[in-house]
Amino acid sequence: DPVVRTVNLVKIYQNGGVPVPAVRGIDLSVEPGSFTAITGPSGSGKSTLVHMLGGLDPRTSGEIWMSGKRVDTLSESAWALLRRERIGLVFQFFNLIGNMTVADNVELPALLAGATPREARERREYLLGELGLADRADDSPTRLAGGEQQRVALARALANRPSLLLADEPTGNLDSRNTRDVLRLLSQVHKDGQTIIMVTHDARVASLADRLVTLLDGQIVDDGSIPAPRRRP
Ligand code: ADP
Ligand code: ADP
After folding, report:
1. Whole-number pLDDT of residue 230
2. Which CDD domains does the annotation name (predicted)?
3. CA-closest residue to ligand 1 atom 14
């Protein structure tokens, strides 16, 4: 079964009574272990799509399936459980917990997913180390710069080794050195067989993906799966 499958997925916001169609009939199937980059101009529905896939924004109509199970009809609490067990999220509002250290923010999802304290600590040390944040472990996230918070959010999203990583512009605030660290970690996650769906404008990030889906006005206008190697004539 695909990790994610949508059937005629639609989202129409109501803006003071005026309907704003954000996603207009998306059929998307994502295979286990694949890395899909989603691109398209501002306002084309990318964020809305990944928010719906993470259960953060209810659909207007259509279906969402995950690994053979229909999920668009789940309750809030069932979504919360699904995220805890299987999905890592990196969105633009990082939602880091200000009165906990960076280390605790990253360890928490691992602990909630059933890791022992020692496993959670080792995973946190690995992730913060890979992202150049080892010396920030004891700080409050509120003391960090935007790009640092963004990397902490990525570490937190990966702490429970989610089978699906959903990310919205995870390199949006990063300089080239930090982007390189993030790219290296994403390559590793992909190699480990985790599925990635990522909104990005960054060609370096997109180049890691094996599929590039382009949205325009809430619809898929291009779906560039990497073709099989071309045979010589
Ligand atoms: P993208 O991520 O590609 O920039 P979005 O998914 O953020 O696109 O937005 C798609 C469309 O939906 C835009 O027209 C945007 O203004 C609108 N939109 C997004 N969120 C809301 C919201 N909460 N209420 C009303 N309209 C929204
Ligand atoms: P993103 O690129 O993630 O959509 P935005 O800055 O466009 O980020 O949106 C920030 C927040 O405002 C999001 O929660 C989004 O859903 C909401 N939003 C976006 N467009 C609109 C809109 N036209 N009306 C109301 N809320 C919106």
Report:
1. 54
2. ABC_MJ0796_LolCDE_FtsE
3. 43
Pull the structure tokens for residue 10. 């639609």
Q: Distances in Å between the alpha carbon of 100 and those of 139, 142, 143, 158, 220?
A: 8, 10, 12, 18, 40
Confidence (pLDDT) at 232: 55
Backbone dihedral angles phi then psi of residue 188, each to the nearest 5 degrees: -65, -45
Could you read off the pLDDT of 118-142 as tens digits, one per residue?
999 999 999 999 999 999 999 999 9
Q: Is 148 in the pocket of ligand 2 (CB under 6 A)?
A: no
pTM, 2 dp: 0.87
Question: Cα-Cα-Cα-Cα dihedral of 60, 21, 57, 55, to 10°?
Answer: 70
User: Which of 82, 63, 34, 48 is closest to 190 using CA atoms?
Assistant: 34
CB 159 within 8 A of CB 119: no
Q: How far away, in angstroms, is 232 Cα from ligand 1 center? A: 45
C-alpha 115 – ligand 1 centre gap (Å): 36
Average pLDDT rounded to a whole number, residues 155-166? 95
User: Atom 6 of ligand 2 has which residue's CA nearest to it?
Assistant: 92
Closest ligand to the CA of 14: 1
What confidence tier does 55 reach under pLDDT thresholds 50, 70, 90? very high
- The residue among 90, 89, 126 whose CA lies nearest residue 107 is 126
**In 3D, which of 157, 108, 102, 159 has the Cα closest to residue 134?**
102
d(CA 178, CA 164): 23
